[in-house]
Amino acid sequence: MILTCTPNPALDVSYQVDRVVPGTTHRIRSVLERAGGKGFNVSRVLTQMGVPTLAVGPVGGILGDSLRADLIESGLPHELLPVTAATRMTVAVVAADPPDATMFNEPGGPMSEMDWARLRDLIAKHLRRASVLVCSGSLPPDAPEDAYAGFVKLAKDFGVPSVVDVGGPALRAAAAAGADILKPNAEELRSAVGVDDPLTGARELLALGASAVVVSLGADGSILATPTATWRAVGPRIDGNPTGAGDAAVAALADGLSRATPWPDRLRTAVSWSAAAVAAPVAGTIDEDVLAGVEVEITEYPTP
Amino acid sequence: MILTCTPNPALDVSYQVDRVVPGTTHRIRSVLERAGGKGFNVSRVLTQMGVPTLAVGPVGGILGDSLRADLIESGLPHELLPVTAATRMTVAVVAADPPDATMFNEPGGPMSEMDWARLRDLIAKHLRRASVLVCSGSLPPDAPEDAYAGFVKLAKDFGVPSVVDVGGPALRAAAAAGADILKPNAEELRSAVGVDDPLTGARELLALGASAVVVSLGADGSILATPTATWRAVGPRIDGNPTGAGDAAVAALADGLSRATPWPDRLRTAVSWSAAAVAAPVAGTIDEDVLAGVEVEITEYPTP
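YS: structure for the whole thing
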């Protein structure tokens, strides 16, 4: 079972409008509510692909109740931790003309030290039967920078490898804790190491202690760096919804890690699932027809 | 006691941002939640001005719980009716540069026939000790066009006069039911009678059966038309938050109706409270310092 942790989930509310015009009033045509969080999306993709998974995360307040209700309704295996901080909301205003999304993300409330300890206990409980731990998405406000690093070390204590998808100091700390795969996008990598070139940045995270770094570069594909090899993979250019593409890649990397597949295969699968996720309208799902036809080109780079 | 009815309330969520840029992601600096609805604002102003009031309206779902919690916390006298339709949300994104608000208004769910009957019963229960009934704000989707008209007639059965603030067919119907004061703004009046000139429109509502019509024209003041007289009132030009200015005017008109003050006095008070509401940062409150200094110019028009 692949255990995913979403420490800063949100109730994602999605509004359909014709067009967003600042300073005016918009009548909403349709409203959708959904449990939001990158770890949840990873578990959704794994479930769709037939890979056993369990999603954990903290929830609080009335929006936490709605989030829990959505996970139950969708049949996603989960164990949520009731905490005192109220679950936050994000509002995505999806416009038809031009087709884009305007996002309003609440920061959420800080989690108490005791709730962090309880979340750690919950992860420990499930690590006993986990093959991989995935830590995904932003941390709540005022979270310790080494929150993910602590979970990575905890997983190591149980002999469980970990995948971490985050940016900034939390990414550096996870590298230093010896995470097995880091999967930042270019911006998250830049916020962690302060360099623009993704390969240079990835190698810096390897030097800190990570076993492998996959950097997603959007339409430019992905690079994978280990201490001994470097590959670049480019998939097809697909129009669609890029939200959740990174989560599909994380799901593929975690699955590959749990099955000890060769690195180039993991990268190929990550880019394929990611492309098929762009083709699916909702984050956390992949278009299986697109997946069947995806071609990925892999190049090995010289490693310095 | 002035009884206010808000048939389509909302949980108003307010986000502070620097600037709204369509198609981008905004991190929210601060989040405010508040029970929203024009009738609630009328009751808030009346409470501030020392006039006894009670607010009624339907609530449902988890947002209904939040709305109720806010009314309890604010100490506003209320009796809310639990209904099956979930209370809607509105999101106001308040930008600093330029200073404006971008609104996203959920439509809400339709109320069942049985819940309409229960709301009517709740109004009837409180009409026994009410001096005025105020019906304020939009109706839920698929509401009967004569919903307010029915409440106006119900109030008449109890010998209680009514003030109605709405637009469209519901305003026409309320006029035909013999409402004592209608208080549309220019746009609501236009949507009801299809003419641009506010005085012509007001006289059409009088012809349908209303006893008096007050049309608020923003910075251009207000006009008051009765079958025998017409006045225009212009207050000071005040920069501020126009949301809730109309509700303050309705509160003043209801108070004047309950105390049987002369028409020009009612209009003067309506324009004064409205101006003082613009000066207050939050809808449903008036700035008492501004109120003390407000000067209103009243002109009587020849009545044809």
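YS: worth flagging: Chain A touches chain B through 31 residues (CB under 8 Å).
IM: good catch. Also Chain A has a mean pLDDT of 94.
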